[in-house]
């Protein structure tokens, strides 16, 4: 396999999903304790007299001077298994041993398009390393499969901690992140097939998304993704094709060429903060475009449409890449000039600490006559962050459907959804968020629902 390099962590992925939701990235990892509360590797003896064990030979390190500081290992997939050196500094004493535990954990992506990354999930690897005055060096081997599949970057966390009390593991060299850059053929593709019934983006004429999952820091959203080699500059043309919607009447095109920056990893290069390829979660623009309003704009024409509106974006004319199995995405436009029900705020937040209810406001666009719609709280099957991030109806909130009736002239109704603090089970900490969604169904004749409501609670 020829040697190539790929892109950044999170996906080597370019997902064009959306930024219509409020900017919110919800951490999925357990919170990192600050220096005051972090479990010290050793307190029984002073660090100036204790032996020290460290991860060593980083390919890039910030020196832990900043909040986002970290140590990094990098390699290309063709390099094979990675052997990480662990060193003992100082002496233990004749006949004495020091034992250090280690753990290697692969980042597992979540979200609607997590499977698009293409690589197999690897279970955590754990073990111990034993040091003596005669054995100062040990190594951790991370198995890497050199295949011929175009994939996202693979990301691993490597950590060590003392198991015996006669050794110190300094916080600054206890953890590192390993990036495995894919070096197979570069491929640009949509994450899934789409059509009018199952669109890539389902837009409302006011420019909002009708359905928008929450995005966590491990999510890969539906959109356009780039896999494999990123060592060369890549361009792909974006062609807009009308399908009942007309360009410059119903929508405008804003981006006609996709040109991400190139990335590569070279072990012989001494990287700096400005030019290193370990830009964790820096997806936007360079690696992931998740704002539909950068691709296109929706024109609110303030007239009732007689036919469903839609258009397609097609990938064409690839340079230094190839187009994958799915070369187009379908966008639908929901007319908001017909009588409709919608949420005053599509994205809602609740907390078990300060309130036992979630207040929801449902609107209707036309106050003429009586009308009704049913509000149903449901499990969030859209965000797909994992089972432990999904709030459960009947356990953490009341999932009973509520029929909302509007009298003549009424355009706004407020209802409350009970939250159950005693049933809440935090994923990792009491500040971690969980999700559920709100659906509007069974609208009166002539009405339609415009949005799905997204709720996060902690």
For this entry, give a set of tags.
single chain; 458 residues; mainly beta; Immunoglobulin-like; six-stranded mixed sheet; 29 strands; 1% helix; repeat; Calx-beta domain-containing protein; CalX-like_sf; ion transport; calcium
- The count of strands amounts to 29
What's the helical proportion of residues?
under 10%
CATH homologous superfamily heading of the largest domain: CalX-beta domain
SSE order, one letter for each helix or strand: EEEEEEEEEEEEEEEEHEEEEEEEEEEEEE
Cα-to-Cα separation, first versus last residue: 48 Å
Radius of gyration: 26 Å
**CATH topology description of the largest domain:** Immunoglobulin-like
Our estimate of the beta-strand percent is 35-45%
Give the domain tally: 3
Question: Structural class, please?
Answer: mainly beta
The first-level CATH class of the largest domain is given as Mainly Beta
Can you tell me the overall shape?
flat
Task: Name the average pLDDT.
Answer: 83
What is the strand arrangement across the widest sheet? 2-3-10-8-5-6
Regions with pLDDT < 50 over 5+ consecutive residues?
A: 1-48
Write the layout of secondary structure elements.
Blueprint: E1 51-55, E2 60-61, E3 71-76, E4 82-89, E5 98-106, E6 125-131, E7 137-142, E8 154-162, E9 167-168, E10 175-181, E11 187-190, E12 201-204, E13 224-227, E14 235-243, E15 251-253, E16 257-258, H1 292-295, E17 296-298, E18 309-319, E19 322-323, E20 328-334, E21 340-343, E22 347-350, E23 357-364, E24 371-379, E25 402-406, E26 412-418, E27 434-441, E28 448-449, E29 453-457
Parallel strand pairs: 1-9, 3-10, 11-19, 12-20, 21-28, 22-29
Antiparallel strand pairs: 1-4, 2-3, 4-7, 5-6, 5-8, 8-10, 11-13, 14-16, 14-18, 15-17, 18-20, 21-23, 23-26, 24-25, 24-27, 27-29
